[in-house]
């Protein structure tokens, strides 16, 4: 079930998750922000129940405005796995939006952690539209990276992109593109 809700008024900060306690839903707690201002605390115990939204410091009016905003968002349409002819339409509520944001943030953290582990432990490069790595050469132990990268280029005699030479965010986006494309996530 992959979908994106396009909006920039409601966000989360201080997301804490507990994978070990997540059974039917993500077990989490977070602060809900509306236009960058904290308005509520969100909690889900991970057992399939509702996410509880509790206003902060008498922010009942701001929480009600955030709920009203969420209801103005277009419904989410999800293809039903068992019945391809029938789609599931879900009206967006603040609770649904908060759950969605928490899941997105959690997934992003996991994929960034996987990238950081692989980036530190392998010399990653792209050649012929494939993400490859040097076996047995952990990047963090290489003292003369420029010599290694020059050797790598000379050995392949083709255009290659070495991720360690890119800015970190650019390397992450390139890595993510190939990892998600290959279905390895």
TrEMBL record:
Protein name per Swiss-Prot or TrEMBL: Uncharacterized protein
Superkingdom field: Bacteria
